[in-house]
Design a protein that fits this description.
The protein is mostly helical. 58% of the residues lie in helices and 0% in strands. Helix 1 runs parallel beside helix 6, helix 2 runs parallel beside helix 5 and helix 3 packs across helix 6. The chain is globular and about 50 Å long.
Length: 283
């Protein structure tokens, strides 16, 4: 599969998932909206378009080049263990998801990176239009992470492409405002990140914001002690504490935000704990 075919496939996965989930959200919303979708869509679509262009024309080609170089020269962790093909694929896929967990977490803890990543969190609502609402600068500097990731792990091109496509679908899904029957979602959430789980991560409350960093598999939060589930969706205030005014979500202000001087973000509100001592996905 050449680069142009991959780009078309990525667009197809994104577009189909985007439209299907928007329709499903309208039929069965999980959380009440603060703002109408129509008022948020221009900003979210504009940021998503810039992020998508940056990813498609810079990050992916460079990462694929690094993957091909790593495979050709047998460089990276997975080239040293000589696993069977199917097991190599599973190990590579899992390692990509685990290392992305740490990359996501770093974007929350390093102040300079949080300046860019906060653009994603400032959206006052959370739905599928938020899923790839990232500052293009964050996507651009993530090229360095992707090159190190695929080179040091020894990720092959097939695994990289497969992970990227599933990553796209998972990101659209867990950012959605889609109400799934809670019993079904709890079963799904034993393995994958779901809308209720990721909704907690978009809270203005710091303890909730600093939890649930996983993208595809939820296990990484369990292993690293960052899993938080027992927060009712009705109790979650989506956004970033100091950016609650409508003008904070204008397209050009969001583009400029990482370059303005501001103090380290502090989520508003006191740390909140679930009603139950058991860490179970709440309604």
């Amino acid at each position: 599969m050449n680069e142009s075919h991959l780009r078309i496939l990525s667009i197809a996965v994104f577009a189909i998932g985007y439209v299907v989930i928007i329709i499903a959200e309208m039929a069965a919303p999980l959380r009440d909206r603060k703002k109408s979708l129509v008022s948020r869509l221009p900003t979210n679509a504009g940021l998503t378009l810039l992020a998508f262009i940056t990813g498609a024309f810079i990050v992916r080609p460079v990462a694929l080049w690094a993957s091909l170089w790593s495979s050709k020269n047998s460089i990276g962790l997975l080239h040293t263990v000589h696993l069977p093909g199917w097991l190599n694929f599973i190990a590579a896929f899992m390692l990509m998801d685990l290392t992305f967990y740490y990359w996501h977490r770093i974007n929350h803890t390093v102040h300079l990176l949080w300046r860019f990543h906060s653009v994603h969190h400032i959206d006052p609502d959370l739905d599928v239009t938020t899923s790839f609402r990232f500052h293009f600068g964050e996507i651009l500097y993530s090229t360095v992470f992707r090159v190190l990731q695929v080179s040091l792990l020894g990720i092959g091109p097939v695994t990289y492409v497969a992970y990227e496509l599933i990553f796209t679908g998972a990101t659209l899904f867990h950012h959605s405002n889609l109400r799934i029957p809670v019993d079904i979602e709890r079963r799904l959430n034993r393995v994958i990140v779901t809308p209720r789980m990721h909704g907690i991560h978009h809270s203005v409350v710091r303890r909730e914001l600093n939890s649930n960093y996983s993208v595809i598999f939820r296990w990484w939060d369990t292993i690293n002690g960052s899993l938080l589930l027992n927060i009712p969706q009705s109790a979650i205030n989506i956004g970033v504490g100091r950016y609650q005014n409508p003008e904070d979500n204008s397209f050009f202000k969001l583009l400029a935000l990482p370059f303005r001087a501001f103090t380290r973000e502090r989520a508003s509100g006191r740390p909140r704990f679930g009603a139950s001592g058991r860490n179970v996905l709440a309604e």
